[in-house]
Amino acid sequence: MIVFSNLWARWTVMGALALTIAACSSAPDKPQPAALPSVTGQLTVQKVWTNSIGLATTPLFASVHGEQVAVASTQGQVALINASTGQDVWRIKLDTPIQAGVSGDGQRFAVITRSNEVVAIEAGKVVWRYRLPALSYTAPLVAGARVFVLTADRAVTALDGASGQKLWTQQRTGDPLVLQQAGLLIPFGDTLLAGWGGRLASLNPNTGAVRWETLVGSSRGTNEVERLVDLVAGASRLGNSVCVRAFQSAVSCVDANRGTTLWTRPAQGHEGLDGDDNLVFGTESDSKVVAWQRQGGQPAWTQDALRFRGLTAPLVLGRSVVLGDDKGWLHFLSRQDGQPLQRLSTDGSAIVGKPVAAGQTLVVVTRTGGVFGFRPE
């Protein structure tokens, strides 16, 4: 393994020889994080509950379903939590570690294990398992009584939600170098949107037929790192506009009905996006927070007071943009101009995945397994 940084971003060459390149953690000249900025205090947020799930060191994300949130740990725990109270609705311990997840539709939930199995769970019990032919780092998508999976060989597979039977597989060939972090797989109306390398593809969820493809990010060089342009998990959707990030390459908004690019801007980030009617928000790899105009893509503001703090993808919540960092801090920035409004602590370990909002509660998960509920006033 060749180490380049402390990010979850890793790359794998598929085939007989697997080359994994992870980004920069042990570099002796790693930049020091910026001092914590002062906050205006114009926003009041209270910690209302805590829970725990277990160590989270793989690409795991919380999944929101009304007032409930599903969380998972690398060690194999999956729990559905009432976001109002912080109490478990149900909890299960699988017999194998979890590689990616969790996702669900409120009734059926799914994760992918390190042994390449999709595991479907209902009411805290395993209902079926399906073995994949390749690794996957992306949470399954549970929608329309089906479970969709994006594997590292750039194949999308649809499984029947009730039985786990394979319905179809669609694969795009290309550069064998893929990102070892969660990729893009989301619903859009009656369409399935998937990231294939630097392309965004629209698939018919019933058959897997490709409706359109559009280029988001292009290779920038000749070495493996510069060629990697996979689309990352976390998109901002508003009407027909879907805004996505190509790893360390670009941010782009696409008309998802027609498959046409509305705008593209260079961007050096590896986390997903969020947005509102006017702006799209993202964090660069040096932890600058950037807001782009949703119409046209012009930069609206940049906040660099959190540089090198290992920020998560942003969450738009009320008048704030919420981000976690690798020291367990939760930062609230103004949507209007990026000014720091509030800051809260968790347990001192990195906040993993994107903060989520379930009803009136903000929920975050930390690397050591803390699950925290906050409520803005």
Q: What is the structure about, briefly put?
A:
By secondary structure, the protein is mostly beta strands. It is built from one helix and 36 strands.
Question: Could you please describe the fold and organization of this structure?
Answer:
This protein has one helix and 36 strands. The termini are far apart. It has one helix at residues 224-227; strands at 2-3, 5-13, 20-24, 45-52, 63-65, 68-72, 77-82, 88-93, 98-104, 108-113, 117-122, 125-131, 141-143, 146-150, 155-160, 166-171, 177-179, 185-188, 191-196, 199-203, 210-215, 236-238, 241-246, 250-255, 260-266, 274-275, 279-283, 289-293, 299-303, 315-317, 320-324, 329-334, 340-345, 351-358, 361-366, 370-376. Among the domains are: 1-30, no CATH class; 60-180, Lipocalin, CATH 2.40.128.630. By secondary structure, the chain is mostly beta strands. A four-stranded mixed sheet has the order 1-3-2-17. Strands 4-36-35-34 form a four-stranded antiparallel sheet, with no helix packed on it.
Descriptive labels:
377 residues, mainly beta, Lipocalin, 4-stranded mixed beta sheet, 4-stranded antiparallel beta sheet, 51% strand, disordered N terminus
Class by alpha and beta content? mainly beta
Q: Report helical residue fraction.
A: under 10%
CATH topology of the domain at 60-180: Lipocalin
Which parts are unreliable, with pLDDT below 50 for 5 consecutive residues or more?
A: 1-27
Discrete helix count: 1
- How much of the sequence lies in strands comes to over 45%
Overall pLDDT: 89
Distance between the termini: 47 Å
